[in-house]
Amino acid sequence: MAHPPPHSEGSTILMTRSGLTRQNLINLPNILTYLRMATIPLIVILLIPPASADSFNMAFGLFVFASITDYLDGILARRHNQVTSIGKLLDPLADKLLTSAVLIMLIPLEKVQAWLVFLIIGREISITGLRSIAASQGLVLDASRMGKNKMISQTVAIIFLLLAVPSLQRILDILGTLFLWVSVILGFWSAQDYFVHFVREAKRQEQHGDIPPVKQKLPF
């Protein structure tokens, strides 16, 4: 999850050079984000076909660990007043790299359909593009509740798909696919709202000149 302060969900913040100090780069919430990113190549190696049940379960353990760090970094950032701009940028990036890598590796293992993964990653690339445009203007756009629910359902889906229990495998795979579809629906729903808000804000700035954008919820 991103590191927003309480009640700032969906707000717009300014990226400043003061947010790139050594202290901010190596605070505990950001270190947890770095650890989450470090699990990505390990999971990829474990899922190289043909992956055994043991490899799946080790990848499952690493993914659960990464998901826990995703939960903890936001709590620690708020509790210890360590919310940083770099954390707001790296945290969602780590989430996307992790989930995208796992989903891609699950394609040749016949756990997910390639076209479904394409929809998920295509959506993420499109929204990240809009975030990049905003960032070029010195802005960082936070995630909204719908975007976070999409991420939660995606995480649950991958957990089910990675867990290898032969006697329950069919049920686990069905549940994983179901939650993955939920994440797709939530993802495109939030993306539609995101584009609408983005276009409205662009028109507002064009009409009123280059003034700081107002705070509003922008789904991610």
Keywords:
disordered C terminus, 220 residues, 7 helices, disordered N terminus, mainly alpha, two-stranded antiparallel sheet, Four Helix Bundle (Hemerythrin (Met), subunit A)
Question: Mind explaining what this structure looks like?
Answer:
The chain has helices spanning 22-25, 28-46, 53-79, 85-106, 114-136, 145-162, 169-208, and strands at residues 12-14, 139-141. It is mostly helical and 220 residues long. The chain has a single domain (12-206), classed as Four Helix Bundle (Hemerythrin (Met), subunit A) (Up-down Bundle), CATH 1.20.120. Strands 1-2 form a two-stranded antiparallel sheet. Helix 2 runs antiparallel to helix 3, helix 2 packs parallel to helix 4 (85-106) and helix 6 (145-162) packs antiparallel against helix 7 (169-208). The longest helix has 40 residues, at 169-208. The N and C termini lie close together (11 Å). Residues 1-18 and 211-220 have low confidence and may be disordered.
Write the layout of secondary structure elements.
Layout: E1 12-14, H1 22-25, H2 28-46, H3 53-79, H4 85-106, H5 114-136, E2 139-141, H6 145-162, H7 169-208
Antiparallel strand pairs: 1-2
Can you give the helix content as a percent range? 55-70%
Summarize model confidence as the mean pLDDT. Answer: 78
CATH classification class: Mainly Alpha
Strand content: under 5%
- CATH topology category name: Four Helix Bundle (Hemerythrin (Met), subunit A)
Largest sheet: spatial strand order: 1-2
What is the total tally of β strands? 2
Order of helices and strands: EHHHHHEHH
Shape annotation: globular
**CATH-derived architecture:** Up-down Bundle
Main β-sheet, in a few words?
A: 2 strands, antiparallel
Distance between the termini: 11 Å
Overall radius of gyration = 18 Å
> What's the total helix number?
7
> In terms of structural class, how would the helical and strand content be classed?
mainly alpha
How many domain modules? 1
Low-confidence stretches: 1-18, 211-220
